[in-house]
TrEMBL record:
Signal peptide extent: 1-20
Keywords noted in UniProt: Signal
Location of the DUF6310 domain: 184-308
Pfam families found in the cross-reference section: DUF6310
Annotated spans, Disordered: 140-204
Domain of life the protein comes from: Bacteria
Source organism: Melittangium boletus DSM 14713
Protein name: DUF6310 domain-containing protein
Biased composition (Basic and acidic residues): 140-150
Amino acid sequence: MRLRASIALLLHVSACATSAPSPREPAARDPRLANLQRAATLPWTDEGRCAVREASEPWPVLAERCFHALDHDRLEVHDPTGRCAVASAGAAAVGLGACALAAPEIVVGAVVVAGVVVVGFAIKEALDAYELKWADPEDARPVAETRPVPETKPVPQEPSPKKRPKPEPRGPEFPPVGPTETSERDRHPECMPVPVPHRGGNNEHNKCADRIPYNSFSGWDVLVNGKQFDALQLATRTLWDVKTDDFEKQPPRSQDFIVKVKLPELRRERALAEACGYDFVIGVRSRAHKQALFRADPTLKVVIMDWC
């Protein structure tokens, strides 16, 4: 039986809109705590360690970087807004899930979890630490001894027409609590990584891309900013273009020609990645290929794929 995931953050948003901030309500001023409470409603395979590590980041960043650590067998993510429906049919299960889960706004019915969620050990420790930090110190103070005071009659005072009643203090005015990333996300939906199927015809190339360390979507290419990249490492926000041709077997003149032809496209891919805040790396299989690319453009980041 499937139960809809509870969204604890909604309660904090409602509470902050109707009451002044207090030491017992740090979530209104601390997005890290709000992220931990939201992460506590999801099933994790790492006890929530990734969520705790990334809790200081905006929720979309946390969701992207820690999507791999979720228990995908128990998690079902929908896209009721339709903004994530840019993945192909073959990639919808992964692409729409990552996109919808990373949405900063709360959408009812977007996340469904099978079974009861047990809060990850790492998340529970972090939440307990917040509870101790924001505990009211007055609760631990001893009650002062009171003595009877002689009863006296109050002296009546005439109200002064010049004095106006002072308004009750309302506390500091904080901006409305809400996702500040929503408008930026809406303006640049093309920067949301969407897993798409590998291009067919070169299994060796695809295997090299899938084996990239910490590849967040192994088995898929990733569509970002209109370009299909070979791999994405969400932890470091790095997009990859993999080259598996036998470059070292070509004569020097042919090597220089190949690099000259490919260089404009590599620079274009780097510009598309950097426009969305990603780093860009070229993976090659030989030192000769790396050196040739470096001679053509020393600003390119090139890595020899020892695993390929």
